[in-house]
Here is the input.
Amino acid sequence: MQPKGPINSRRNFLTRILSAWAGFTAVPFILGIVRFIYPPLRTDKLIESIAAAKVDDIPANGAKIIKFNKRPVIIVRTLDEQYKAFSAVCTHLGCIVEYKGEQGGYFQCNCHGSMFDMNGRNIRGPAAVPLPQLRVSLKDTDIIVSVVVS
Amino acid sequence: MEKLQLKIWLSERLPFISQIDSFLRQKTVPRHKYSIFYLFGGLSLFLFGIQLVTGILLALYYEPTPENANESIKRIITEVSFGWLVRSIHAWGADFMVAAVLMHMFSTYFMKAYRKPREFMWLSGSIILFLILGFAFTGYLLPWDTTAYFATQIGTEIPKSIPLVGELVVTLLRGGGEIGSEALRRMYMIHVTILPIVSLVLILFHVTLQQVLGTSKPIGIPEKYPAIPFLPNYIYRDIIVWTYILILLLGVAMIRPVAYGDKVDEYASAPVGIKPEWYFLPLYQTLRVVPTTVFSLNGEMLVNICLVIGSVVWVAIPFLDRRANREENNVVFQLLGIILVLYCAISVVVGKFT
Here is the structure.
């Protein structure tokens, strides 16, 4: 806003100085508020592997969702007795996928209909990226899930 | 005599009341074949008031923590006197309010009430619409049930693909990487403090402008009857409509009380048939049908960019439709409005039933 009066008047000068000062002091406050709103990042130590379930917990052609590094992971027991594990988070908008064993074996996201095959590959959109796979091994009767393979 | 004395006593101390009263008694509302659409503005205000009152009542018992949120809703429904009704009115009232605001916005658009000198009314009204949708979105998570959880997961994931600021917006909304206690607290805080304060200020601005600038008349529509005095005649009409809508809202809230969903299981698959509320279905349906890549661009990002550009264009309509300022109809903008209404209506129907 253009202050009234002669351009070089004392009042004009003071108005400009005070406006600049107000703007200058507002900046750190605003930045401080934004920084305050931004949540502190928690750096939890990543677990490399866990005993996720017992072999008998998952029926043949069935699946179980477990918690691994605070994220859902889906473990599948295939008909030929293989165990596979994938991140259960749909790569589209983050819903948790469901295993469809009786319909031929694939993962489906019920939110927008994305599908992933038994290797985690996206076979129907809108998801554009495969489900990250995790390594699975067996130790006695325990299913061990460990860090991401792909 | 005493009444007159009281009036004089008050007018000496609160002089603006008599000034407002005489101003409103001089104000008139035009009468023509589309004047019924004027009622949606007042109706939106009335429904906002209902949401405010029922929201304050619910806040007395609601607890915004993952451990207690769902339980507190259950308590409101089962233990608190009329709790089920207050909650049902609040949930249904959100639907009614969004519908009323959309009707108000589209009638304003088609009657070109945004034209000079009412550009700021359109601007403030558009922001109020976004705030109302913000109310609906932030309030949706609060019951902390499965549907709410995944709806919020999707809704907060959508901005992620916006270039540069996407990740920041998502982190600020969720208070972290995932939907959890921080997200619930933030949604609650936004729902009960930021949005009401900003909305009330903007509504006050919007309504004051409406009173000062008066009611707009559509271009080229003749007035067959004399204008109606705003106070008291038009207010009476408003009150009659509000009464009908209140009866309807109470009826729906009682006959179809809002369901109580199971507490969130963060490690369970999203249930089959999960869909957002009807007013978010156009976006939902668009995300469903847009291919993963369009012209080698990420489809989701493209939807987001179109949404942002579309919203900016929509808000800037009064400054783009120059012919309206010359009291001329503009076929392009009429068509644009019709296409938008049809797209929204079709995608709501398709999204709901497929």
Notes: Residues 20 and 26 of chain A are 10 Å apart (CA to CA).
